[in-house]
Structures are given as structure tokens and as C-alpha cells.
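Predict the 3D structure for this chain.
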Amino acid sequence: MWAYVLRRIVWTVPIILGVVLITFTLFSLLAQDPARQYAGKFATPEVLQAVRAKMGLDKPRWLDVAALGDGRIADAFNSQFFDVVLFRFPESMRWEAPLWVLVKRKAPASMMIQIPAFLITLGLQLALALYVAFQRGRWPDYTITFLAVLGMSVPTLSIYILAQWLFGQVLQWFPVAGWENGVHAVHFAAMPILLMVLVSLGGGVRFYRTVFLEEVNADYVRTAHAKGVARRDVMFVHVLRNAMIPIITSTVTALPGLVLGALLLERIFQIPGLGNLMVEAIGNNDRSVVMGMTYVLSIIYCLLLLVTDICYALVDPRVTLK
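Done. Predicted structure below.
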């Protein structure tokens, strides 16, 4: 297994570099001059040059060919692209702070919403899907499936706006938008958490219902029922365990979203999290934040895919890693 893990890590390196290369190329080709944007239209050449230096734009984009020709190998890689690869992100011009300081500042708000919403959603999805799988063809199956499809069909933006109007303005149970640190953050996070659970529930229930139905109709389930095994044990010991591979795949691949945050939700509810940070960075042409977040997320995603494959072998002895 360790040989497999080592090979996957080696293959992960060019994948991550490819993601950074594509993002860096598109950003360089399509984006306007960020230094001119922050320096101002009437900035002097000296001011413009200082802004370029602060943003790291005074360096070559890919490789310093002159330094490479002179034999200065280390200086040849002192470029904008390799700064990103080596985690040397310039200071954000919008917030005038390094990327890691911004992440440390914004992450608590996102995690306070993302982690409870993710855990609650996953638990409800599995419980409801397992229940309707054993109630197939009966009214609970039809009712929950109908509500799941209905929840998937309603636009997310409409749900957010309706919740703000109903629960925030009419009933005044929760704040319409905004954020406070400390204990008061719970009051501001309650409605976004409930809404994230609501908009994510339908798709997961439909997916896991299909997964569990394949297991419910298997021979080993009928054998367990014939032996008199309790219904609860059949559901949680046999069916749930044998369906762990698609559950792990769906769960682990959703984890990078916890790091990025909910872009639309944080923007609408004015939550100062990572999602809102990313939206503002894109709108402000903040290269440091966009490139840094893209790079970090690509690394996290590739590592989580590796963890997923390892978990396959742990939960199912039939899976071998070669």
C-alpha cells in the first residue's frame, strides 16, 4: 500500500502544477493591469513602479532567461509563477495584508457555518436515505423523495432571499445579514446553517437513496432477514457498511468546500468568511488572494482524493491498492 501512496503523491505534483499553470496563464491573459488599477489612472511612473514591486509584478512571469544564461540558477526561478508555486504570495493590495493573515482572520467565520452545516446535512442525508430505502414503494418513500426533488428544483438564491424576508424581516427571529464575533456569532450563524442544510439535503438524499437501494435488494440482506436479524442491525451493520465506498467518495470530495466557504451565502448574508474573501478578490482583481486560494485548494483536493483511495481499502477488504 505504501508504494501506491508514494506513486499517487508523485503523480499529484504535476496535477497541482498544471492547475496553477492554467490558472496563472488565464489570469495573466484575461486580467487587466492590477497595478494600474490600484495606483490610479493618473499615477506617476514612480508610483506605478512601486505598486508593481509591492505586487510582485516587476519580476518575470515565467523564468528569468537572463539570469539563467548567466548561470545564476537560483535567480532564474525568481519569477511570478514560481513565487506562487513556492507559496511566496505578495501582500494583498485590497486588504494590505499577507494571504495567510487574511485566511487566519476570515476562516473562523466560515468554519463556524460550514462544519455544523456539513455534519448536520450528512447525518440527515444518510438517515433519511436509509429510511426511504427500506420504505420503498410506500408513502414515506414518495413523500420524502418528492420533497427532495422539490428542494433541488427551487433556485438557491430564491431560498436565501425568501428566508431573509420571512425569518429576518417579518418574524425577526434572526438578523437579516451581518456578523459579530464571540458568543453573538451563534445568533448570526443560525439561519445560514439552516439554509445550507436545507439546500443541500435534497441532492444527497436522492443520491444515497439510490446507493442504499442497490444494497437493500442484495442477496445478503435477504439472507439476514431470513435468519431473523433485527431490522436495525440490517440497516446499520450490513447495508450502511457495504455502502461506505460511495459515501466516502461523496463526503471527502465535498470537504474542500469547507475550506473555501459558501460563496453565494456569505456574500448575501455579509459574512466575513473565506467565500466572501474569494468573491471580493475576484472582483478587485486581487491576484495574490485568487492565486493563493486556488493553489491551496488544489493541493487539499488532491490530498483528499488520496485519502479517499486509502479509506476504500480500510472499509472494504476486497479493495486492493496496487
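The first helix runs from residue 2 to 30.
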